[in-house]
């Protein structure tokens, strides 16, 4: 990320309109895939960790000749490297399956980066990055940025099973928990979070994952008066605030649009994380 975008900036001026870009690779990572797209215009600095992009395959993006096309899918930006943007995918339905089929040379429509990103810890707090499943995606680019700024960060990741736990390789030096105990600690990532906060509560928590995980993180941090930033997800049709399809209730009344007020939202803005608002980072 270019130094012209300070770490405190939560959003950046995205290139206007969607862009037709070229896929440079698709890497396997256990149960996941890492889609690599040539995107030098954005990799020069027009992005903030925590932002997302709307993706759609340029060809065969729909349900068939007599069926409606798919809506573009929103994916957290996982990393920028050597002029490429990386996105973490999991095949969970027809839209994500089509994206997982892409290979080098295929074309893809990209709109973004969009939304609000993470902000740095204050008052000398360390960063605790807490991810679940494909929700680890935005934490990877955030870990990269924190390292460039010499801000201490610890990574705690949770997965359903061993094949998905291989996704932990997207980040560095992560502590891992799995639901079935087939990799890392047998248990939940929120168990690891409680242990870390018991050791040192002078931290800011950054989390992205399924809604139940995010709600537990929110409750843990609220009880301990620990600042937390949650990367949410909700059904998006546009990605830039026009359709109001991704709203979540705001503490004290009103609503937040996940696409423009988030996806990264201060946990103090929420009474709870709704079931439809889990930050899954790669199946948006």
Structure overview:
It is a single chain. With 284 residues, this protein is of the alpha/beta class. It has two domains: 19-114, Elongation Factor Tu (Ef-tu), domain 3 (Beta Barrel); 126-269, Nucleotide-binding domain of ferredoxin-NADP reductase (FNR) module (Rossmann fold, 3-Layer(aba) Sandwich), CATH 3.40.50.80. It is 18% helix and 30% strand. The chain is built from six helices and 16 strands. The protein has helices at 40-43, 94-100, 137-148, 162-165, 189-199, 211-224, and strands at 19-29, 32-38, 52-57, 73-76, 79-81, 84-89, 107-114, 126-132, 153-159, 174-178, 185-186, 203-208, 228-231, 247-249, 255-257, 264-266. Strands 4-3-7-1-2-6-5 form a seven-stranded antiparallel sheet. Strand 14 (247-249) and strand 15 form a beta hairpin. Helix 5 (189-199) packs parallel to helix 6. The longest helix has 14 residues, at 211-224. It is globular, with a radius of gyration of 18 Å. Mean pLDDT is 90; it is low at 1-8.
The CATH superfamily of the largest domain appears as: Nucleotide-binding domain of ferredoxin-NADP reductase (FNR) module
- The residue fraction in helices comes out at 10-25%
CATH class of the largest domain: Alpha Beta
Sheet with the most strands: spatial strand order: 4-3-7-1-2-6-5
Q: Which series of helices and strands comes N to C?
A: EEHEEEEHEEHEHEEHEHEEEE
Flag low-confidence runs: 1-8
The number of domains: 2
CATH architecture of the largest domain: 3-Layer(aba) Sandwich
Rg is: 18 Å
Count of β-strands: 16
CATH fold topology of the largest domain? Rossmann fold
């Amino acid at each position: 990320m270019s130094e012209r975008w300070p770490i405190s900036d939560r959003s950046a001026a995205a290139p206007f309109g969607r862009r037709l870009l070229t896929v440079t690779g698709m890497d396997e990572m256990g149960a996941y895939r890492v889609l690599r797209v040539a995107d030098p215009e954005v990799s020069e600095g027009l992005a903030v960790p925590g932002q997302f992009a709307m993706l759609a395959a340029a060809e065969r993006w729909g349900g068939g000749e007599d069926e409606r096309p798919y809506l573009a899918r929103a994916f957290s930006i996982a990393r920028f490297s050597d002029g490429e943007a990386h996105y973490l995918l999991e095949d969970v339905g027809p839209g994500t399956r089509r994206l997982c089929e892409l290979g080098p040379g295929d074309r893809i429509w990209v709109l973004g980066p969009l939304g609000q990103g993470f902000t740095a810890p204050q008052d000398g707090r360390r960063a605790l990055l807490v991810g679940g499943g494909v929700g680890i995606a935005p934490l990877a680019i955030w870990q990269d940025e924190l390292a460039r700024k010499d801000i201490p960060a610890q990574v705690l990741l949770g997965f359903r099973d061993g094949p998905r736990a291989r996704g932990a390789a997207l980040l560095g030096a992560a502590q891992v928990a799995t639901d079935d105990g087939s990799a890392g600690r047998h248990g939940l990532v929120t168990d690891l979070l409680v242990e870390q906060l018991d050791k040192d509560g002078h931290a800011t928590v950054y989390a992205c994952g399924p809604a139940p995980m995010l709600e537990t993180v929110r409750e843990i941090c609220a009880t301990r008066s620990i600042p937390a930033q949650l990367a949410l997800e909700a059904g998006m049709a546009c990605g830039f605030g026009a359709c109001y399809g991704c709203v979540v209730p705001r503490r004290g009344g009103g609503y937040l649009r996940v696409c423009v007020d988030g996806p990264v939202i201060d946990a103090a803005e929420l009474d709870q994380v709704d079931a439809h608002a889990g930050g899954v980072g790669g199946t948006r």
